[in-house]
Amino acid sequence: MRNASLFERAVAVTPGGVNSGTRGLKEPIVWEAGEGAYLVDAEGKRYLDYHAAFGPIILGHNHPAVNAAVAQAMTRVDLTGVGTTELEIRLAEKVVEHVPSAEMALIFGSGTEATYLAGRLARAVTGRTKLIKFQGCFHGWHDYLLMNIISPPDKIGLKDPASAGMLPEAIDNTIVLPFNDSEAIESAVTAGGDEIAAIILEPIPHNIGCVLPNIEFVKTLRRLCDDHGIILIFDEVITGFRHGLGGYQEKLGILPDLTTLAKAIANGYPCAVLAGRADLMMRFSSAGGDVFVGGTYNGHPVATSAALATINELEDDAVYERLFRLGDKARRGLQEIADQLDIDMTVAGYGSVFVPYFMSGPINRYQDLLRNNSEADVMFRTGMSARGIFMLPMAMKRNHISAAHSEADIDHTLGVAEEVLKEMARNYGLR
Predict the structure, then answer these.
(1) Residues 6 or more apart from 136 whose CB is under 8 A from it?
(2) Model pTM?
(3) Ramachandran angles phi, psi of 257, nearest 5°
(4) ∠ CA 301-307-312, rounded to 5°
(5) Distance from C-alpha of 263 to C-alpha of 270, rounded to nearest angstrom
(6) Per-residue pLDDT tens for 39-91?
C-alpha cells in the first residue's frame, strides 16, 4: 500500500515520520491533495475533511482566491529582510479595523511565536515574573506555558509540564488554575497579584474540544487585571477568525490588553499576529523599545497576501452566517442520533466547530471532561474516518466546518455517524 511504503521512507529520515508530535496516526496517512472540503491520500482515497489542519482551513482547501493572491504576490516581491511591504501594512490595518482590542499589530509565522512574545512583553511592562494559565488551555510549545493541557486525573491541581527539558524556572513561574472558576482566580490574584505579569486565556478552550466560558468568569479576569496592574492576554489563535472577524472577544464584549491570532487568519498559510494596546506594543524593539522582537520571515509576502485574501472573503457576512448554520445542523443532528440510540453523548461546539463528547453534561471546565469515554470517542472517530469522513482519531478534538462544506455534506456526515454509532451500540454495548 502506498501510504505504508511512503511512511516507511518518512520514518527513516524524520523522527516518527512526522514533523509535529500531534500528527502521528495509528494507521499512517500520506496526503497527496486537498480541494474544497476534501483531502485525498496517496492511494487516491477521498475524505470529507473536518480536521481542517487543526483549524486553519476556514474557506476550504486550496481556495482559488487565496491561492491567486499568493501567486500574484510571488511575482512582485519575495523576502526583503528589511523595511516593510504594503502587504504587511494592509494586514495590520485590517487587524486593527476588525479586532476590538487591537490598536497596533505585529505579524509572525506561528501562534507559538505570538504567545511567547505576549508573555515577554507582559513581563517587561509589569516588571513581574509570573504568568497565570488555565487547565486544559494550550498556548504553544515554549517553556513559558507548555503545561497542564490534557492532564491525567492525578495531575489536576499540580504542575504538569508537557515536555522534558523545560526550564524549572519557567515551570515555577507559571500558575495553573481551573477554567471558569472565579473564586480560584480571585484567591490567586489576591494572594500574589504583585508578582503576576499576565493572565492568558483561550476564550474558548478549543484544545480540549469546546468548553464555553462563563461571562462572569471573564469579567472577573478583566476586573482583577485592572485592579492589580496585570496584563490580560486573549489567546485567540483558534477562536480568532474562525468565529468572527472580531474574534470571540467581540462576542463577549470584554477586551483584553493583548490578543494573539493565527490559524484561520490565512486559510492554511503560516501567519500569526500579536495585537493590542498601542502603549504596550510600542515597547517592542521594532519601535525603539526595550523588548526585543525579530524574525526573518515575519510578514512574509506569501503569508500576508493569503491573510488579506482570506479576510476579504470573510468580510462577506454570508460566510459566517452559513458556517454557523451548518455548525448548528451538525451539532443538533449528532445529538438527536445519540439520543435516539440512547448513547451517552453531549455534542458541544460553537459556530463552525462541533465536538461529540461521550459523556453527559454539564461541561464547564477540564475536570468535567475526565468523565469522557475516551475509548468510545476514538472508536467513533476511527469509524468515521474509515468510511471517508476524516475526524482526527484523538479523544476530545474539535471538528471544523469550512465554507466549502455543503448542506449535503452535513447530511452525509450525519448518515455515516448514525451507521457508526449503531454499529458501536450493537457490537460494544455502547450506551
Answers:
(1) 148, 149, 150, 179, 205, 207, 208, 211, 365, 366, 369
(2) 0.97
(3) -85, -35
(4) 125
(5) 8
(6) 999 999 999 999 999 999 999 999 999 999 999 999 999 999 999 999 999 99
Name the residue with cell 478552550.
205
The grid coordinates of residue 26 equal 495509528
What does residue 175 show for φ and ψ, rounded to 5 degrees? -100, 130
State whether the Cα torsion 196-198-199-200 is positive or negative.
negative
Q: Would you say 414 and 360 are in contact if contact means Cβ atoms under 8 Å apart?
A: no
Q: Which pLDDT does position 427 carry in this prediction?
A: 87
Of 257, 288, 290, nearest to 275 by C-alpha is: 257
Q: Is the peptide bond before 100 cis (omega within 30 degrees of 0)?
A: no
Could you tell me the end-to-end alpha-carbon distance of the chain, in angstroms, rounded to an integer?
36
C-alpha–C-alpha distance, residues 331 and 351, integer Å? 10
The beta-strand segments (E) located in 244-294 are 258-261, 272-276
pLDDT of residue 156: 95
Determine which helix (DSSP H) or strand (DSSP E) holds 197, and give its type and residue range: strand 196-201
**CA separation, residue 75 to residues 71, 72, 264, 304, 305 (Å):** 7, 5, 24, 14, 12
